[in-house]
C-alpha cells in the first residue's frame, strides 16, 4: 500500500491496543505504543534508502529483505526496544513489541494483496508473491481508517478501541471479499481466452473495475472489466527480436526489470542519429497511451549502451494503481 495508508493502519492498530486495559489506563504507554505502531507500519519501506544509490538499485531491492520473514521479527525487536528505552518503560517491552509486530506484519500482508507484490518468504524462496486484489491506495480503506484517526485526533472519542475493532473487522472482510472477487473475475477472463498462455487481472481504483492482460500464441490482448462487461482495449503482436534488443540484455535497467516482470514485452525504434531506442516493460501494468513502468535503453549505431533509465513514468494518481 502507499505510505499514507500504512500510517493510517498503524494509527488504528495503536487505537485497537486500547482494548488492553494497561494501555488504556496509562497515557505514557499508550503514546509509546502509538509511536512504535506508526514506526512499525512504515519500517519495511525504509528500503527507500537504496534510492540514494540509484533508482535502479531501489527497484531491484524494494519489497525484498525489508519485507521478509526475518524482517517480521527484526523490525519489532528494534523499534520496540528503541521506544522502550526512549520512554523508560522497559517493563512493557513485550507489549510494545507485540503491537509493533502487528503493524509490521500487516504492512507486509497488505503489500502482498497488491499487484506489485512482495518477496515475503525470503530467505526460503525468492519468488514474488502478489494477490492482485487491492490497489496501492484503496479509497474505502483509506477513508474508513482516516475518519477514525481524524476523529481520535480532534477528541471526538477518548478511547478509540471499539471503533478500531470494527474498522479492522470490516477491513478483514473487505480484503477477503476482494481476493475472492479477483479470483472470480480471473475465472471469467480465462473462459474468454481459453487458449491463453497466461492471464493477469489487476484491480482498478473503484469496486468492480479491473484490467486484464492475456498472453496468447499470437501476442497479447488487453482490456478492462466494468461490472459484468468486458471491454477489449488493444492487441499487441508477439515482440519481434532484433540484434539491438539482445544488446540491451546486459544493461542493469533491463536486468532489474526482468527480475521483477511477469509479462515482459519489448519494442525498438531506429533513431535519426543511427542508434536505437529499446523499451522494455511489464505488460501487467499497461495503459492505452503508453507503458508507465518501463526501462528505456539507448544504443549507438555499434549497439553500445549510451543511456538507460528505469522507473514509473506516471503521476501517483494515474492508473495503474500498483
UniProtKB/TrEMBL annotation:
Keyword Membrane part of the UniProt annotation: yes
InterPro entries assigned: Transcription_regulator, YdjM-like
GO molecular function: hydrolase activity
Keyword annotations from UniProtKB, A to Z: Hydrolase, Membrane, Transmembrane, Transmembrane helix
One Pfam assignment: YdjM
Protein name (record): Metal-dependent hydrolase
Organism: Cohnella faecalis
Highest taxon in the source lineage: Bacteria
Record-annotated membrane-spanning stretches: 69-87, 93-112, 133-154, 166-186
Amino acid at each position: 500500500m502507499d505510505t499514507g495508508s500504512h500510517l493510517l493502519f498503524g494509527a488504528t492498530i495503536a487505537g485497537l491496543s486500547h482494548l488492553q486495559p494497561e494501555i488504556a489506563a496509562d497515557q505514557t504507554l499508550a503514546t509509546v505504543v502509538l509511536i512504535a505502531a506508526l514506526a512499525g507500519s512504515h519500517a519495511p519501506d525504509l528500503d527507500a534508502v537504496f534510492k540514494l544509490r540509484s533508482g535502479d538499485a531501489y527497484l531491484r531491492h524494494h519489497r525484498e529483505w525489508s519485507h521478509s520473514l526475518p524482517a517480521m521479527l527484526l523490525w519489532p525487536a528494534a523499534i520496540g526496544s528503541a521506544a522502550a528505552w526512549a520512554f523508560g518503560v522497559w517493563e512493557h517491552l513485550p507489549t510494545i513489541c507485540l503491537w509493533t509486530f502487528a503493524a509490521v506484519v500487516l504492512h507486509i500482508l497488505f503489500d502482498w494483496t497488491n499487484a506489485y507484490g512482495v518477496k515475503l518468504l525470503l530467505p526460503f524462496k525468492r519468488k514474488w508473491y502478489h494477490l492482485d486484489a487491492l490497489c496501492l491506495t484503496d479509497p474505502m480503506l483509506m477513508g474508513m481508517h482516516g475518519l477514525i484517526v481524524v476523529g481520535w485526533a480532534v477528541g471526538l472519542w477518548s478511547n478509540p478501541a471499539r471503533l478500531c475493532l470494527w474498522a479492522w473487522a470490516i477491513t478483514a472482510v473487505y480484503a477477503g471479499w476482494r481476493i475472492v472477487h479477483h479470483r472470480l473475475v480471473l475465472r471469467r477472463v480465462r473462459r474468454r481466452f481459453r487458449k491463453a498462455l497466461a492471464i493477469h487481472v489487476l484491480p482498478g481504483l473503484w469496486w468492480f473495475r479491473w484490467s486484464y492482460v492475456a498472453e496468447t500464441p499470437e501476442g497479447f490482448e488487453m482490456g478492462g472489466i466494468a461490472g459484468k462487461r468486458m471491454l477489449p482495449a488493444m492487441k499487441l503482436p508477439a515482440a519481434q527480436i532484433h540484434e539491438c534488443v539482445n544488446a540491451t540484455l546486459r544493461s542493469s535497467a533491463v536486468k532489474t526489470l526482468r527480475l521483477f516482470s511477469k509479462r515482459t514485452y519489448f519494442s525498438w525504434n531506429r533513431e535519426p542519429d543511427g542508434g536505437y531506442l529499446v523499451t522494455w516493460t511489464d505488460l501487467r501494468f499497461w495503459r492505452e497511451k503508453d507503458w508507465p513502468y518501463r526501462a528505456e535503453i539507448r544504443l549507438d549505431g555499434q549497439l553500445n549502451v549510451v543511456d538507460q533509465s528505469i522507473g514509473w513514468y506516471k503521476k501517483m494518481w494515474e492508473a495503474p494503481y500498483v
